[in-house]
């Protein structure tokens, strides 16, 4: 793995971890639910957002 691949992998991990943290915060604030599914699906959500979903505010 070269340096650019390592940086890309690290940035993907950071984004997925941000999704996990936001999911935990949302469940805690709602005082309801279980964070297992959003935490487990964070990597999939990151790929969908990065590669497939188009957002143009």
Describe this structure in words.
Helix content is 77%, strand content 0%. The radius of gyration is 14 Å and the shape is globular. The mean pLDDT is 91. The chain starts with a helix and ends in a 5-residue tail after the last helix. It is built from three helices and no strands. α1 (3-30) packs across α3. By secondary structure, the protein is mostly helical.
Short description:
With 57 residues, the chain is mainly alpha-helical.
Q: What's the helix and strand layout?
A:
Blueprint: H1 3-30, H2 36-40, H3 42-52
Keywords:
77% helix; mainly alpha; single chain; 57 residues
- Share of β-strand residues: under 5%
Mean pLDDT: 91
Enumerate the spans where pLDDT stays under 50 for 5 or more consecutive residues: none
Radius of gyration (CA) equals: 14 Å
Topology order in helix (H) and strand (E) letters: HHH
Largest sheet: none
**SSE-based structural type:** mainly alpha
Put simply, the count of helices is 3
Kindly report the oligomeric state of this protein. Answer: single chain
Percent helix range:
over 70%
CA(first)-CA(last) distance: 36 Å
Q: What is the strand tally?
A: 0
Shape: globular
